Recover the amino acids of this structure.
């Protein structure tokens, strides 16, 4: 059955890009778009933070509030407000950094990761 589908071209056997690779590409495109348009009106810092958090988790990395602020191109006070809203929406959680008491780690909640992956699969 599979052999017939392959012969007739009805089965796509090309390797699918990983979800993390798709997310990274979306992030690169967003950054290029912002630079090309030479404006900040297209920014969506909360979404950029979610993209960064997903990629970081996939790579086994952890991101701090400061790193999310820098990565999304907004001041730290603004980043904290966005993170507060995402915490309230149960999208992210704050964790203490065992190595540096001054830092706060931000991570996706398991529910947010599942929702995010469902969305990405629909969009890929």
């Amino acid at each position: 059955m599979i052999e017939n589908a392959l012969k007739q071209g009805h089965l796509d056997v090309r390797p699918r890009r990983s979800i993390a690779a798709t997310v990274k590409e979306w992030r690169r495109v967003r950054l290029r778009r912002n630079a090309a348009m030479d404006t900040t009106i297209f920014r969506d810092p909360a979404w950029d933070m979610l993209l960064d958090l997903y990629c970081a988790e996939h790579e086994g990395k952890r991101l701090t509030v400061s790193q999310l602020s820098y990565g999304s191109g907004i001041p730290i006070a603004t980043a904290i407000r966005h993170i507060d809203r995402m915490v309230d929406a149960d999208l992210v959680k704050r964790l203490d950094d065992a190595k540096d008491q001054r830092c706060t780690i931000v991570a996706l909640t398991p529910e947010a990761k599942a929702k995010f992956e469902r969305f990405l699969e629909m969009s890929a």
Remarks:
- The longest strand covers residues 92-96.
